[in-house]
Specification:
This protein has 188 residues and is an alpha/beta fold. It is built from 6 helices and 7 strands. Helix 1 links the parallel strand 1 and strand 2. The protein is globular and about 45 Å long.
Length: 188
Amino acid sequence: MISIAIPVYEMKNKDFFLERCLDSIRIQSYQDWEIVITEKGKMAKNTNEALKQSTGDLIKVLFMDDYFAHKDALKNIVESFTGNWLITGCDTNPHPYWTDDIITGNNKLGSPSCLTIKNGLGMYFDESMSWLLDCDFYKRMNDKYGIPTILDSVNVNIGIHDGQATNILTDKEKQNEHKYLYEKYPIK
């Protein structure tokens, strides 16, 4: 079984986004799943809560404003999963790849909605982050488990809108996260 971890948070058109996300799950050809919806604080804390509540062998993160691109998306992800983590392509990044400078914000893997992990790894998002939390998480996953399995096909659509973290965080907040990452991972 795969858990689909959906952190929910307040945003404009919340009901529309969540319903679109859930509709994309209902039509999946792969049906051995559970949905775990959480609404516990800011983004990283909320996502971590969803990860902790997931009981499937695999955990697919899917932010509420994102959705599966087609009916075989979950099947493709499950059948392609090897190792400890997988990144799938999405409509905004159809050909993901690893970059060694990911801590600079050069994320070519994609949003956390492109992520599937093996349950039980004990890896969680840094709760002091909102914008570069995926870069930090991917760096730690790579350091511990190596480069992810990369599924070079579009299985997730990213809900682009003005309520995304990229659009609502101030430049100062973004700069602070860059500074935090540089302090956490000093350049050698």
